[in-house]
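Example record used in the benchmark description.
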Amino acid sequence: MNLPVYLYGQPVLRKIAEDITVDYPELPNLIKDMFETMYSSEGVGLAAPQIGLPIRLLVIDGSPMGDDFADCKDFKRVMINPRITVTEGDDATIEEGCLSLPGIHEKVTRPTVITVQYMDEEFNPKEEIFKGFAARIVQHEYDHLEGKLFIDHISPIRKQLIKAKLNNILKGKVNCGYRTKMQPR
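Model output (structure tokens):
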């Protein structure tokens, strides 16, 4: 099922997400629906808060970026209860966008290497090191689980420059090619 993506202003996007257990209701269907929603929205990652659920679950398929970023080739994951345990490497500044902030793209500086502990869809524990753009995708989605958005990483001057765009999202003056849910009025 293609679910609506929650847009900037929805309170769930600012909550710290909760861990889930193996008995979380309908988890396989939720994961399937999240991938379907991500693909229909032309995203490369989706965190559960973006569909209104304050839980520590994210799906990623960076393979569409594989031609430009070798580390994204065949990069598809389900991450349950992820924790970034190590950040290292040089920082890189690259433009990011977000399904929850349509029409906004800003340069964000992030570490280039991270270590993540998580559980896969069968609740098998995993620990992986991600580099380059794959690390960026994981960090972007992970931020959603921590109640953060990529705009939290930009300068106050840049935030001021995008204020009108943010206000338009809050007012529902945004055109997306995917289903959305806006801030309650």
